[in-house]
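Recall that a protein's primary structure is simply its ordered list of amino acids. Everything else, from secondary elements to tertiary packing, is in principle encoded there. The following example makes that idea concrete.
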Amino acid sequence: MDKISALFHRFATRTADALGSPWAFIVALAVIATWIITGPLFNYSDTWQLVINTATTIVTFLMVFLIQNTQNRDARATHLKLDELIRVTVEARNSLVNLEEDGSDKEMKDLQAEFRQLRQADAEAAASQQPKTP
C-alpha cells in the first residue's frame, strides 16, 4: 500500500504542478476556443454540447481528488512544522500540538476567542505607547 500511496503522491504532485501552470490554462482556453469554433460545423447540436459538458465534468471530478491530495499533504506538513515550533518554544503551550486532530470544535473556538483578545490587548498597548504628536 505504501508503494501505491507513493506513486499516487508523485502523480498527484506532478499533475497538480503541470495543470496549475500558465501553459495548462492556455491549452484549456484553446480547447474551449476549438469547441466554440466547431459549433457551426455541428449545428450546435446536443452531441456537440454533450462533448464539452462530459469532458469538463470528468476533468473536474478527477482534479478534485488530485487537489485534495496535495492540499492535505501541504496542510499536514504545515501542521507538523508548527507543532515542532510549539514543541521547542519554551513559552508555548504544548497542548496546542496536534490541535487540528485532537482538539474539539469548542476548544478551537475558545482558543480563537482567546487569541483575538490577546491581539486586541496588544493593539491597545501598542496604541497607548505611541507618542502623541501636537
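The longest helix spans residues 46-88. The two ends are 71 Å apart (CA to CA).
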